[in-house]
């Protein structure tokens, strides 16, 4: 019993001395916390193990949604481009291109090369951040859907070429226009004036000249890359041009979003309103397909096209360039359009 008491006393003394020594070390300020002075190997190993185990434990019960949804990937591209490239880089970007990354310690992962291995952990880190690092808790300013969009995008990022990345980040979130024509939008909706063309729309060929026509970039798309998806895109365009309302709606998924004229519509909103206007417009116009390309991504795909449209606005012949970007997803044996983005600009105006 005496030996046991001596052992306990010795252990207590050792612990007490270690605690005093630790406190003295902390208060001495001897340890360099500068980001340009790396941790010792034991300290780094301990912190790295603590970090990874904490993330794994806290993220284990998170439910992962469908990360192959083209809408999620496109929206995530917009967020990533604005919020993440300074630390985590992008395809074609070097560390020296960032002013902040070279001075960070520990170095953030290069997500353009490694992506994310566990979507649950990536979601948790983006939402909650990491203490004593440069990783912020984006959950304080972004909802879960936005964060999952970023995860979906980063999950695909390592497989993207520079051109594919630039196309996604250039088009993500941008609002286009109706197929090949521009409307004079008022706060209450479309302007239907007395100087309309044969279709009854108010067409103002100069109203959107300030918009960036390259927002819907078709770079990175290749003709025939996703032939089945391209066939659906062609059927969608043909139905619009032929006034086939049922044919148009047959290509659209139930949860499709349609961006035109600076606002986004659901399938039902488009079917009950602007679809009829688009059909009427295209009926009075001459359309020529200039280019069409696609990019497959597992069970999803993107199809982009450029069309030249000749019409009449305010009694004058007008030539428009229309860009269309469709996001499609495989539904069983078929493809459905889940997102539509349109943009147009005048190419030439004739007459006085």
Shape: elongated
User: How do the helices and strands follow one another from N- to C-terminus?
Assistant: HHHHHHHHEEHHEEHHEEEE
Instruction: Please state the structural category.
Output: alpha+beta
Q: Biggest sheet: strands, sense, closure?
A: 6 strands, mixed
The tally of strands reads 8
Radius of gyration: 28 Å
Describe this entry's structure for a reader.
By secondary structure, the chain is an alpha+beta fold. It has 3 domains: 1-31; 41-166, Cytochrome Bc1 Complex, Chain D, domain 2, CATH 1.10.760.10; 174-349, Roll (Nuclear Transport Factor 2, Chain: A). 39% of the residues lie in helices and 21% in strands. The protein has 12 helices and 8 strands. The strands form 2 sheets. A 6-stranded mixed sheet has the order 4-3-8-7-6-5. Helix 3 crosses helix 7. The longest helix has 27 residues, at 2-28. It is elongated, with a radius of gyration of 28 Å. It starts with a helix and ends with a strand. The model is unreliable at 171-178 and 180-214 (pLDDT under 50).
Offer a quick outline of the entry.
This protein is of the alpha+beta class and 352 residues long.
Give the SSE layout.
Layout (H helix, E strand, L loop, with lengths): L1 H27 L12 H19 L10 H14 L1 H4 L22 H4 L4 H10 L15 H13 L5 H10 L13 E2 L2 E2 L36 H15 L3 H6 L1 E9 L2 E4 H6 L1 H10 L2 E12 L2 E14 L2 E16 L2 E16 L3
Parallel strand pairs: 3-8
Antiparallel strand pairs: 1-2, 3-4, 5-6, 6-7, 7-8
């Amino acid at each position: 019993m005496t030996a046991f008491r001596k052992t306990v006393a010795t252990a207590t003394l050792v612990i007490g001395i270690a605690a005093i020594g630790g406190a003295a070390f902390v208060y001495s300020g001897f340890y360099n916390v500068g980001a340009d002075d790396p941790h010792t190997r034991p300290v780094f190993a301990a912190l790295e193990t603590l970090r990874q185990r904490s993330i794994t434990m806290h993220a284990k019960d998170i439910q992962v949604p469908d990360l192959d949804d083209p809408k999620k990937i496109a929206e995530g591209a917009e967020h990533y481009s604005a919020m993440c490239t300074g630390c985590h880089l992008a395809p074609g970007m070097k560390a020296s291109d960032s002013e902040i990354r070279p001075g960070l310690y520990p170095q953030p992962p290069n997500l353009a090369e490694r992506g994310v291995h566990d979507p649950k952990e990536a979601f948790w880190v983006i939402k909650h951040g990491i203490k004593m690092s440069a990783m912020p808790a984006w959950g304080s300013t972004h909802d879960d859907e936005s964060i999952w969009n970023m995860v979906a995008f980063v999950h695909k990022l390592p497989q993207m070429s520079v051109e594919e990345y630039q196309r996604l980040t250039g088009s993500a979130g941008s609002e286009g226009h109706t197929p090949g024509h521009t409307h004079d939008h008022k706060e209450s909706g479309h302007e239907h004036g007395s100087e309309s063309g044969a279709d009854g729309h108010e067409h103002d060929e100069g109203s959107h000249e300030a918009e960036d026509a390259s927002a819907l970039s078709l770079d990175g798309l290749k003709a025939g890359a996703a032939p089945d998806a391209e066939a659906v895109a062609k059927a969608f365009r043909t139905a619009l041009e032929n006034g086939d309302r049922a044919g148009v709606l047959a290509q659209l998924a139930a949860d499709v979003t349609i961006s035109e004229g600076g606002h986004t519509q659901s399938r039902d909103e488009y079917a009950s309103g602007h679809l009829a206007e688009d059909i009427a417009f295209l009926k009075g116009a001459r359309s020529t397909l200039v280019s069409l390309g696609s990019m497959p991504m597992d069970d999803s795909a993107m199809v982009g096209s450029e069309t030249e449209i000749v019409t009449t606005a305010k009694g004058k012949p007008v030539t428009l360039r229309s860009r269309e970007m469709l996001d499609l997803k495989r539904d069983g044996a078929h493809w459905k359009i889940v997102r539509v983005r349109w943009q147009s600009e005048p190419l030439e105006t004739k007459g006085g």
